[in-house]
Amino acid sequence: MARWMMALPPVIFAGLAAMFYVGMQRENPGELHSVFIGKPAPVLPGTGLPGVTQLTDADLRKGEVTVVNFWASWCPPCRAEHPVLNAMAEKGIRVAGVNMMDKEADATAYLAEEGNPFFALATDPNGRNRVEWGVTNPPETFIVDGDGTILFKFVGPLVGTDYEKRFVPALEDALK
After folding, report:
1. What pLDDT, in 10s, does the model give residues 92-125?
2. Across the strands, what pairs with 141?
3. Start-to-end C-alpha separation, the chain
4. What is the DSSP string of 18-55?
5. HSE, side-chain direction, 13 A CA sphere, residue 34
6. CB 141 within 8 A of CB 77
């Protein structure tokens, strides 16, 4: 009985090695696939910040491509990408925001300090709606087609080579 148990560790190792090898042969092994691509954007939170236009589901279905950014004032990567969002808005790209798990006063102060790139904004103070969008941690950014269909999801800050190689071309394709 002990002999077959001695064979068990090498068999388990070989199985794991085969699984990892097959996984690495995918077209882009580092890419996180989203089940939301090609599907209608989930419902948005019904809350917002005082003095800022409330983001609604209808805003995502007005015939224009929209960049939807999930962010928080306490999030260092969100702060790092904020100048990129401001630059997008200055170029005329529709940038919408969903502030998540943040205090209203902190979010308002942050936008007053750093500028508000969002044409409209929703808040998700308890993080309930972020789950419906498949967002784990901020920042995460979606490109939404004019009919409300999610075209692309980007996890992480909109900075660096990953942003330049994946997000920028996806946004350019969507805007064509």
Report:
1. 999 999 999 999 999 999 999 999 999 999 999 9
2. 69, 154
3. 67
4. HHHHHHHTSS-TTPPP-TTTTSBPPPPPSB--TTSPBP
5. 23
6. no
